[in-house]
Each structure stands twice: as C-alpha cells, then as structure tokens.
C-alpha cells in the first residue's frame, strides 16, 4: 500500500482514543504513519498527574512518555511534539508552518485530525483550523519547491459527537487491531477514566459497520468525516 498517514492532535492522548485503530491498521499494512501532538495536555487533560507537589515539567514528561509508549504500540514511524501548551492552545503562523513542514516531509496522502466544531474544547477547533492552513501552505509552490499533492482530511470522532455536529461518512473496521488499540489506551494511565468509554464507542461503531453485509460480524470500529469529496472512477465497488 502506497502513501502515508499523518495524524495531528491537540493533546497527547487524543490520537489513542480517536484514531488508534486506523493508525495500527495502516501501519500493519505497510503505510508510514506519522504523528504530531501540538501539546502535552498538561494543563487540562492530565488531572490525575497533578497529585501532590509536582512540577509542570514532570507532568509534561509523564505525558510524553505515555504518548511515546502508545505510539510505539500502534506502529507510528515518526512522532513530533510541538509543546505549544493547552487550555487554551495558542495559534500562530509559526505553528502552522511547523505542521506544514511535517506535511512536506512525510508526503502524507491523508491527514487525520479533530473536527471543525467542538464547543467543549476549543483546542480541538484550533487544531482543525491550523491543520487546514498548514495543508494550504504545504500545497503552495510559493512556499517551497517541495510542495505536496493536497491530502484528504478525515476528522475523527469527538468525545461528544452530537454537541459537535459530527456526521461521519466513513466507518472503519478495526476489529483485527483492536487489541493493539486497547494496549495503547492502557499506556495512557493518566486518562484511564476514558478506557471504558472509548471501548463502548468502538463497539457501537463496529455494530453500525456490521449492518453492511460484507462487514457482518465485525466488533470494533472508528468513525470519520471527510472534508473534501472523494475522486472515484466508478460508483460500483
């Protein structure tokens, strides 16, 4: 299988819950999977790490170690931490440039990131915006001769689907790599409160995918929403 996959997340835990199955599945099939975490989630997504007299650097180091362990389980080829800070995640031209440089380096044909709307976590909205701006910059020859073919953007499922107006049009069967995703989830003990929740989400999406005959019997799935239309040569599979 040709091409590469780039995952861009606001916080270090996001990739495991939202698209860990897709990452493991494609890595198993020979696709180069790359990951960018814009922050360690040290301020708003590391509650259990803030126990006793602990320093911010110690919390960030703990979250980095968890992310590295999870990424290794999922088969990630490269992992970049941009350490922008979170709650709120800052946005700048330099942040966009850094994501754009990763796109040019990896030549990703698909990018997985947060959906456009998430009123409960504006860090996710900023990540979506920066990712699209980085895509725009990476495909522009005026920013360098190594410009890229515009990749598809797939938004992974947010924590509160209905609140975000998320309407998936892609269901991915991740049954064959579920155990990898589960192990990666367990590599994030700082957010162990999410383990059971995202197991239920995967089972629900698996049941929905199983309503299609050829996917009958699959148990786990992930949901995605494409931003740009797919280009096909046939409407019949």
TrEMBL record:
Q: Which SUPFAM superfamilies match?
A: LmbE-like
Q: Which InterPro entries match?
A: GlcNAc_PI_deacetylase-related, LmbE-like_dom_sf
Pfam families cross-referenced by the UniProt entry: PIG-L
What is the protein name stated in its UniProt record? PIG-L domain-containing protein
Species per Swiss-Prot/TrEMBL record: Bordetella genomosp. 1
The organism's taxonomic lineage, starting at the top: Bacteria, Pseudomonadati, Pseudomonadota, Betaproteobacteria, Burkholderiales
């Amino acid at each position: 299988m040709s091409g590469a996959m780039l995952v861009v997340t606001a916080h270090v835990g996001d990739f495991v819950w939202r698209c860990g199955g897709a990452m493991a599945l494609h890595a198993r099939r020979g696709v180069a999977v790359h990951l960018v975490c814009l922050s360690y989630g040290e301020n708003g997504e590391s509650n259990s790490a803030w126990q006793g007299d602990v320093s911010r650097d110690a919390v960030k180091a703990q979250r980095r170690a968890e992310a590295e362990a999870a990424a290794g389980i999922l088969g990630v080829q490269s992992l970049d931490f941009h350490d922008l800070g979170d709650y709120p995640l800052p946005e700048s031209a330099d942040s966009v440039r850094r994501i754009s440089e990763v796109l040019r380096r990896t030549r990703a044909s698909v990018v997985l990131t947060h959906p456009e709307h998430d009123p409960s976590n504006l860090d996710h909205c900023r990540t979506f915006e920066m990712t699209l701006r980085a895509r725009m910059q990476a495909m522009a020859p005026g920013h360098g001769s190594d410009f890229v073919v515009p990749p598809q953007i797939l938004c992974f499922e947010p924590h509160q689907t209905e609140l975000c107006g998320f309407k998936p049009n892609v269901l991915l069967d991740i049954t064959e790599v579920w155990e990898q995703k589960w192990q990666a989830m367990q590599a994030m003990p700082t957010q162990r409160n999410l383990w059971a929740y995202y197991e239920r989400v995967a089972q629900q999406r698996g049941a929905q995918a199983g309503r299609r005959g050829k996917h009958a019997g699959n148990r786990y799935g992930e949901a995605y929403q494409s931003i740009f239309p797919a280009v096909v040569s046939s409407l019949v599979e």
